[in-house]
Amino acid sequence: MAKIYSKEALEISKKIPKKETIQFLLNYSKALNIVKVGNKSFEILAN
Questions:
Q1: Cα separation of 41 and 32, whole Å?
Q2: What per-residue confidence (pLDDT) applies to 47?
Q3: Neighbours of 4 (CB within 10 A)
Q4: Which one of 6, 24, 29, 38 is at 20 to 30 Å from 17 when CA atoms are compared?
Q5: How high is the pLDDT of residue 11?
Q6: Per residue in 1-47, pLDDT tens?
Q7: What is the DSSP string of 1-47?
Q8: Predicted TM-score of the model (pTM)
Q9: Which value, to the nearest 10 degrees, does the dihedral of the CA atoms of residues 13, 18, 24, 30 take?
């Protein structure tokens, strides 16, 4: 069992996201607005 786990740990490679994914997340975060009313918060997506 130990050999299997150590082999998997060596095979993990660095993953780089696509440019489209990064752009989508940036645009989403720019459009997201959080409004706090009392003890509640509302998320509004201006799209």
A1: 13
A2: 67
A3: 8
A4: 6
A5: 61
A6: 555 566 555 566 778 999 999 999 999 999 999 999 999 999 999 86
A7: -HHHHHHHHHH-------HHHHHHHHHHHHHEEEEEETTEEEEEE--
A8: 0.54
A9: 70
